[in-house]
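Dataset card, provenance and construction

Sequences and ligand SMILES were collected as paired inputs. For each pair, a complete structure of the chain with the small molecule in place was predicted and serialized as structure tokens. The example below shows a pair involving magnesium ion. Curators did not alter the output after generation; any descriptive sentences attached to a record were derived from the structure itself.
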Amino acid sequence: MKVENDKTSSSLDLVKGLSDSAFVVDRERNIQDFNRPFLKLNRIDPHKARGIKESFCRDHVNMEICENSCIALKCFEAGAAVRFDEVKGKTEGGETLNLIVTAVPIRNQQGEIVSVLEMHRDVTDEARIHEKYKVFLDKEKRAKEELERLVNERTKELRNTQAQLVHSEKMSSLGQMVAGIAHELNNPINFIYGNVETLKEYTQGFQDLLAGMEHLIEGNDGLKGGFDQLKEKHDINFVLGDLGKLVQSIRHGSERAAEIVQGLKTFSRLDQAQLKETDLHQDIDMTLTLLRNKYKNRIEIHREYGDLPPVVCFSGQLNQVFMNLLANAIDAIEKEGDIWVRTRVDGKSVVIETRDSGMGIPKENLSKIFDPFFTSKDVGKGTGLGLSISYSIVEKHGGKIEVESEVGKGSTFRVILPIGGPPEQKDQA
Ligand SMILES: Nc1ncnc2c1ncn2[C@@H]1O[C@H](COP(=O)(O)OP(=O)(O)OP(=O)(O)O)[C@@H](O)[C@H]1O
Ligand SMILES: [Mg+2]
């Protein structure tokens, strides 16, 4: 804005015509003109308005900014309009005002600045609304963030529950299938195992018969020659020596097969939906039998079993826990090493501890290993669900799992279970 006139009638008209508080000051900052809004903003009684002219502006205007830099002076110095936003003003009653202050030079016909028109726009209400709006926006932003956090949390929970459900559904159908196969294999294996003894007896009979025949034909060269020829043709001497070993290895093999079938049956217990008193040592042994292929000839298993009472539990589910802890321990040992399985009673609980001499778990992973899908194993090797499922199974039993580990030395997982079973379900046992 450029006002070119002398400071008489037209500047007065200009000031009077403004709706914002406005006044004109000379170089000494004495007030030359002012308008009604000026009186109103500065809470000046209109009856005392006469004394304002030619008085020092600061006697009527109270703004923080005036203490350090006078806006009118700045305008004189700049020789151009200046504007200040967010100026704090104070009324006599102590009320704080938010102002936008604009100062415009007024020039005479020679172009010299003779005075300055200063305008004060009161934006206190707008600022208040703006502040309220900001608070509201902040609140809304926080509410939105909280909502997002809750949604993420719930989604994660749902995802975990779903994953666990899918996994346990899979485990239960796998369990049924394994139980079916174990049942089918049981008969033929018993058949072999049961007949090995008879086979041994029959073999002994034939050996006795041969020895008897040899004895009988002793001295009869004709018969003996033919008999020896037959013996040689069928390599009977070797057969006789090998037969015993053969029967022994059939017995051994069928015993192993029976053990595995028993392991499968134990692992897949169809009674897993019911709480039952269980010999945990038997379960751990069966699990180790099933895992034998993964550790034989490279890992030594040390069983340091204490005197455990039968434990009330969902046996099939606990087998999943032992299976996973032991499989993890085996996986943690790259080449050769040791695994210790220790059990003991501690008050009203049993403690089952698996310790391995494997690679250990880095500190930063310790808090994550029970999270679903956390795995350090190669793609396709581990689902990362084993420990999270073990955790919820042990929790369901009213127990807990503890872990200690040192990188390069190995890990210890401790399962603590109440002997009497899950607290709230005791009466069902
Ligand atoms: N005994 C252990 N030694 C070293 N690391 C272990 C041991 N047990 C668990 N971990 C770490 O915890 C991770 C999670 O184990 P978890 O049993 O949940 O999943 P996983 O074994 O990777 O996969 P899955 O059990 O589904 O086959 C493992 O990938 C491994 O990094
Ligand atoms: Mg695992």
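Derived descriptions for this record:
The mean pLDDT is 87.
The two ends are 93 Å apart (CA to CA).
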